[in-house]
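Recall from the previous chapter that SMILES is a line notation for molecules. Here it describes coenzyme A.
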Amino acid sequence: MQFRLRDATNADLPRIVAIERRAFAHPWAEEAFHRELTLSFSRIVLGVTDQNDLGGYLCRWLIADECHILNVAVDTKYRRQGLGELLMREAIAEAVAKRVAIVTLEVRRSNTAARCLYRKLAFEERRLRKNYYGQGEDAIVMERRLTLTTKNRTSF
Ligand SMILES: CC(C)(COP(=O)(O)OP(=O)(O)OC[C@H]1O[C@@H](n2cnc3c(N)ncnc32)[C@H](O)[C@@H]1OP(=O)(O)O)[C@@H](O)C(=O)NCCC(=O)NCCS
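With both inputs in hand, we obtain:
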């Protein structure tokens, strides 16, 4: 399956929220996504099929020299087809282009799929935040440092 990437608008929110509800036990509400669209440092990138179906999305903040991934999800029927990786690579490529030093995120310790995805993209597991998601649900803080060259390129 081929996906193209584009930025989200308010018109996309119902479809984003539908995927969010299928992906997470504690999903963001539509208002939370709406708020992200009003923030200058926030961006929601979508992966869309040729048929204009929404496959998944990624939300990131870009503040000072850090890109923070707040949310990434791929709809169940489009998983294991490279879209999660495509969205993450887009966030990393943008961070490189904007000369950001580091990309960070938090992931549930139990989320094997996401941890494998981030490790594949050279993220390192740095710290544990005990009970970050509630009792017994630890967060792992992951980081990828970007090595910038004078040509503003890195390997990813
Ligand atoms: C995590 C998630 C975004 C991955 O999206 P995806 O489109 O299915 O992932 P991709 O097809 O791009 O896979 C890329 C890599 O991720 C890893 N990966 C993805 N799913 C995996 C799984 N179920 N088990 C193990 N590794 C997995 C693999 O390393 C894979 O590389 P490979 O295909 O060469 O083996 C998706 O499973 C999802 O939406 N999960 C629910 C929401 C969520 O947990 N988001 C992350 C919050 S931190």
